[in-house]
Each structure stands twice: as C-alpha cells, then as structure tokens.
Amino acid sequence: MDAREMKIKAAEAALAYVEDGMRLGIGTGSTAEEFVRLLAEKVAEGLRVEGVPTSERTARLCLELGVPLKSLEELPELDLTVDGADEVDGGLSLIKGGGGALLREKIVAAASNRMIVIADETKLVDTLGAFPLPIEINPFGQTSTRIAIEKAAARLGLSGELKLRKAGEDPFTTDGGHFIFDASFGRIPDAEALSGELNSIPGVVEHGLFINMASFAIIAGPAGVRTLKAK
Q: Looking at the domain 3-122+211-221, which fold is it?
C-alpha cells in the first residue's frame, strides 16, 4: 500500500461518520482532498451535506466536484470537521499548517462539535516537532515578531531556525494575507507551554499546534486502519 492508498483508506473510514444533513468542516491538504473526492461521490448519490472549507484551495476542489458549500458566517456551528495533520502524537496533539491554512483550520475545528483527524501512519509520532512548526504572523513588524518567538522558545529550552516560507522569490501569503515562519525546534516536550508562549506574542496570528481539539484520529498503514483516541 503506497502513501496515497493509505490516505484514501483513512478518508474512507472518516466518511463513515458523515450523516445525512450534516454541517461539515472540510480540511486542507492531500489527505483532506482524498476525503473531498470520496464525499463528492456520496453527494452525487444523494447524500445531503453542507460544507465549510478551510481554504480557498479546498473550496475550489469542492466546487469543482459538486460538494455544496457555505461560509462559516452562514453555518457558525458545525457537526463535524474532517482534516489531516502533519504530525499526530499519542495524546492527539497535532502539528498542522503545512498547507498554509492553519488559521482557518483552527477556527473551523473550534466551531465543530467533533474533529476527526485522518492521516497515514508516517504522521504518527511520540513527540511533536520533527515537522517544522508553522507560525502564522502579521507581515508588519516581522523581525520583531521573529525575535519574540526566539525568546519565547528559549524560555522553554527550544532553539532552531525560523524560516520565512516562500512562494518562489516572494513570501508565501496565506488566504488571510499573513506570512508564515516554519520553526525547526526539533522535539517539543511541552506543546501546551509553547502554545501559550506563542499566543502571548502580538505579531503571532496563530500557530500550528492543535491541542485538545481532535476527538480521535484515523490512522492508515500497510496493516490496515486503526482509530487512535487520546491517552
């Protein structure tokens, strides 16, 4: 089973939790896109759902495939969000944002009664941090914000390069008009403490640590699909 097949298997398992009439948060990224394709097939067969996309990229795919969409203003409370992750630990803490949609992903997840994470088993880790942590920032004062992030990390014994994400020669810009630092801190033993530090920095719009947000994770691997609940 290759990587895409594992993503499809995880997406198929998540689709079993989608019921007729649901208001769905729809994630961003390669695994979430497999979920959208499968969801579109069910919609074509008569499943009635309304989706709120977490990015313009996801919105385009949904519209192309015929998945009905609403804005979060129109559907401010959601039944379920299905989204991928860049890393998942045993306590269901996540690193997300590799696709650049972390702010909208977190807003949509917070508006949902449940969040299901779908991933292949390469995303499962003992401790978060091997994947660089995306930190979404306001472009104004980005150097000051960088220094503040470095100081906050140092207070927790963390260090590493903060790399401004690029799209070609220019900074990558999120759907909300922000920039992203990818922080290579390595192991993050206390993700909750780091989350608190980052939340206190005015120039930080949001970060990719999702803590106590996932209801459960569906993890697919060569041996099959399993459901991971928080320890």
A: Rossmann fold (3.40.50)
